[in-house]
Amino acid sequence: MFTLWSDIDRLFNHSFSDMFSDRMMRRFEDCDAYAGACRMNLMDRGETLEFVAELPGVAEKDMNLTVHNDTLTLSAKREVSHDKENLIYLAERGNYNVQRSIGLPVRVDAEKATATFKNGVLRVILPKAPENQPKQIAINA
Amino acid sequence: MSENKELQNQNCEKCELDQKNAGASQNAVKVRVCRVSPDCDIEEAKDDYIVRMDMPGLDPEKIDVKLDKDILTVEADSAVDGLETRHYYRQFRVMRGLDAEKCQADYKLGVLTLTLAKPQTAKPQQIKITCD
């Protein structure tokens, strides 16, 4: 009985390579959190609205961004490919398909919107429509 | 499990609260930077090991990849304007004998790709048979 259990233990211990031995055990001792889903944020910068999204590994052709009235729509997909001849030890990064529609608090001027994608971070600057721009109020002392 | 203990003691110095707040005034709010473990893919090719990690929004000059005997450590600070600051940190136990000089690192579209060349001893080697 003892021999049988230790054989089973050995089977589970050695069925994976020792090369990256802690890959199955991502413990919270090492970190506070797992990376998690694509982070996004919409900020009001006074004269503009700024939308930022983390989209690692997405090619430009797989990204689509539209602004219509008060809604910003983002769609992006990422596919992970592995060489068929390679041996896979760990596959945590998956394919993802992000579809988000964000309601904008104010109307924006879509013609003047700009977007940049650098190092996996998408940043969209949406200038507010002229009627929504902050206006200085003169104080009569 | 002495192997695991060794990894636990490899503290990420940058995350020590004291260091972060060195020089800050007494009334300053102490902000703890979130240490995050990035998602990772590891595969073995014919001549090397390929490690890919999702770490968007980094300055490639400031990504720290260290190989200390058989421990590979990847860490970097992500300061994306508009999102909470993160400190990416992950360690792996790798085979001894990896030559850091022969390893390559590439950062594209927010994905860090490490190509670790296999040492000669890891590749199959023919043994010649001499017959009398």
Describe this structure in words.
The complex is a heterodimer of chains A (141) and B (132). Chain A is 9% helix and 38% strand. By secondary structure, chain A is mostly beta strands. Chain A has a domain at 35-130: Immunoglobulin-like. Chain A has a four-stranded antiparallel β-sheet with strand order 2-3-9-8, with no helix packed on it. A three-stranded antiparallel β-sheet of chain A has the order 4-5-7, with no helix packed on it. The model of chain A is unreliable at 13-25 (pLDDT under 50). A four-stranded mixed β-sheet of chain B has the order 1-6-5-4, with no helix packed on it. Chain B has a single domain (2-120), classed as Immunoglobulin-like (Sandwich). Chain B has 132 residues and is mainly beta. Chain B has helices at 2-8, 17-20; strands spanning 34-37, 40-44, 48-54, 64-68, 71-78, 86-93, 104-108, 111-117. The relative contact order of chain B is 0.20. Chain B has two helices and eight strands; from the N terminus they run H-H-E-E-E-E-E-E-E-E. Chain A binds chain B through residues 19-23, 25-26, 29-36, 39, 41, 43, 50, 52, 54-59, 80, 82-83, 85-93, 119-121, 123, and chain B through 3-4, 7-8, 34-46, 49-50, 52-58, 60, 80-84, 88-95, 107, 109-111.
SSE layout and pairing:
The complex is a heterodimer of chains A (141) and B (132).
Chain A: H1 2-14, E1 33-34, E2 40-44, E3 48-54, E4 63-68, E5 71-78, E6 87-91, E7 96-103, E8 114-118, E9 121-127
Antiparallel strand pairs in A: 2-3, 3-9, 4-5, 5-7, 8-9
Chain B: H1 2-8, H2 17-20, E1 34-37, E2 40-44, E3 48-54, E4 64-68, E5 71-78, E6 86-93, E7 104-108, E8 111-117
Parallel strand pairs in B: 1-6
Antiparallel strand pairs in B: 2-3, 3-8, 4-5, 5-6, 7-8
Question: Keyphrases for this structure?
Answer:
heterodimer, A: 141 residues, mainly beta, Immunoglobulin-like, 4-stranded antiparallel sheet, 3-stranded antiparallel sheet, 1 helix, 9 strands, 9% helix, elongated, B: 132 residues, 4-stranded mixed sheet, 2 helices, disordered N terminus
